[in-house]
Amino acid sequence: MPRTPEQYEQIRKGKKLHICETALELFAQNGYHATPISQIAKEANISKGLIYNYFESKEELLTNIIDNGFNELIDNFDLNKDNILTDEEFEFFLHSMFKILDSQRSFWKLYFSLMLQSSIAQIIEPKVKVWYDMLTSVLEDFFKRRNVKNARTEALTFGAMLDGLSLDYIIYPNMFPVDDIINHLLEKYNIHKKS
What we know:
This protein has helices at 5-30, 37-44, 48-54, 58-75, 87-103, 105-115, 118-145, 151-171, 178-188. By secondary structure, the protein is an all-alpha fold. The chain folds into 2 domains: 1-55, Arc Repressor Mutant, subunit A (Orthogonal Bundle), CATH 1.10.10; 58-195, Tetracycline Repressor, domain 2. Helix 1 crosses helix 4 and helix 4 (58-75) packs parallel to helix 7. The protein is elongated and about 60 Å long.
């Protein structure tokens, strides 16, 4: 039987995901600049030309990987997407963040290494800025509702702290007291633990 358009779309999504996963591992292991498309194709067991059926360039492949990685994190922030972060959503996000860091370790290693390379950071900065602005805005509102003085600064500081915590956890996962850190943050913002 011939395949339906839906089946072709599923096959296409599967191949695209396979290419992204292969490229992610190679970029994380060898570096973005040191990984040619031909190596990604070889590791993915597909032709180099087929990659270009899915992605116009290596840059587009990279931005797709960044999209996929950040979307998982964003999906666990402000669960009902109403731009109002509740105490429960704040706590859920903290727990989810560390689980995502743990399960997507290669992505986050790649992300942090890319952000230190100015030529590559410029490629992904427009995407990251959209998420950063959204997260900061929602956090600023969250802190305003908690009567935190200078909520914007608190939101920016909290975001920078999460970056640092994430980097430490990626580098030293076995030496990092996740539960203690989460409990400290919940206490700091007077959030009564639910889970």
